[in-house]
Amino acid sequence: MLRESISSLRGNLNENIYFFKKHKRFVNGLLFLTIAILTGYTIFNGYSLADLLNNMRNISLFWLLLCIVAALLFIIVESFILWILLKQKDKKLSIFRCLKYAFIGYFYSGITPSATGGQPFQLYYMRKDGNSTAISTVALLSMALFYKLIMVFMGVALLFFWSNGIIEYLNVYVWVYYLGLTLNILILFVILAFMIIPEKTKFIIHKLEQLLIRFKLLKVNHCRSEKIDLFIAGYKDSVDFLFQNKFKMGALTLLTFIQRSSLLFIPVFIYFGLSLKNTSLLTILCIQAVIYVAVDMLPIPGAQGITELIYISALGSIFTEQYLTTSMIITRSVSFYLILLIGMMVVLINGKFISKK
Question: What pTM does this model have?
Answer without folding.
Answer: 0.78
